[in-house]
Amino acid sequence: MGDPIARFRRWVREAARAGAPLPEAMVLATADLRGRPSARSVLLKEANEAGFVFYTNALSRKGREMAANPWVALVLYWDVTGRQVRVEGKLRELSAQAADAYWAERPLGSRLAAAASEQSRPIADRRNLLARYRQLERSYPSGNVPRPEHWSGFCVVPSTIEFWTRAEPRLHKRELFSRSRGGWKVTILQP
Ligand SMILES: Cc1cc2nc3c(=O)[nH]c(=O)nc-3n(C[C@H](O)[C@H](O)[C@H](O)COP(=O)(O)O)c2cc1C
Predict the structure, then answer these.
(1) Index of the ligand 1 atom closest to the CA of residue 40
(2) What is the DSSP letter of 18?
(3) Does any domain span residue 133?
(4) Residue 167 has pLDDT above 70, yes or no
(5) 42 in ligand 1 pocket by Cβ < 6 Å?
(6) Is residue 49 classed exposed, middle or buried when 0-12, 13-18 and 19+ CB atoms within 10 A define those classes?
(7) Residues of the domain holding 14
(8) For 149, which of 59, 74, 101, 178 is 20 to 30 Å away at the CA?
């Protein structure tokens, strides 16, 4: 029936090749304990057998929602290839070592910005944020900015993955992969 992770990775590569500007951009939906949803874009860092990995600030709005309710959904859409992928699953936080390894790979500007920003919190003046950035820049002239403990990686362990393909005349194709006994069951859905 095919491996949905392998297919997903192929779809990202094909979107990149077809010229999608940010093929790894995905919408992450979370919900708070009362079931109120919120959504925002994040960047997919990796998709592997374990799931779909992204990085963020665990103290942000999404971080707080993810801590309260680990069930999330992802959506990726590539207009250039006429394809959409939807993922639903449960989060697992990555180890500190995995977060350190990716932190070390990131450009200095991204590390300074992530360390300076209390993501999702209000700030009276954007200049204060820039001042914090500059201050960190001075404090770590070697560029060795430490990873804030709350900047972390999360893996969405999928329970379902749906592949949608644009097809004419409007009879789009939908294949839903659901986890079953260690493997995947495929169901065809009407468009
Ligand atoms: C294309 C794109 C990619 C983004 N990637 C990330 C990301 O990987 N991690 C992240 O924390 N925020 C990312 N952001 C910012 C988020 O969309 C969002 O503004 C931020 O994480 C705060 O969301 P929250 O207040 O719901 O926690 C990205 C924004 C865009 C437009």
Answers:
(1) 17
(2) T
(3) no
(4) yes
(5) yes
(6) exposed
(7) 4-111+148-189
(8) 74
- Residue 170 pLDDT > 90: no
CATH number at residue 159: 2.30.110.10
> How many domains are contained in the chain?
1
Cβ atoms 72, 56 nearer than 8 A: no
Q: What is the pLDDT averaged over residues 68-74?
A: 98
Residue nearest atom 4 of ligand 1, based on CA coordinates: 42
Tokens of 169: 């005349």
DSSP per-residue codes, 30-59: EE-TT--EEEEEEE--EEETTEEEEEEETT
Q: How many CB atoms lie within 10 A of CB 180?
A: 9
Nearest ligand 1 atom to alpha carbon 56 = 11
CA-based radius of gyration for the chain? 19
pLDDT digits (tens, 9 = 90+) for 15-66: 999 999 999 999 999 999 999 999 999 999 999 999 999 999 999 999 999 9
- What DSSP state is assigned to residue 61? H
Residues with Cβ within 8 Å of residue 113, at least 6 apart in sequence: 133
Cα 12 from chain centroid (whole Å): 14
Beta carbons of 43 and 106 less than 8 angstroms apart:
no
- pTM more than 0.85: yes
Look at residue 182 in the predicted model and tell me its pLDDT. 83
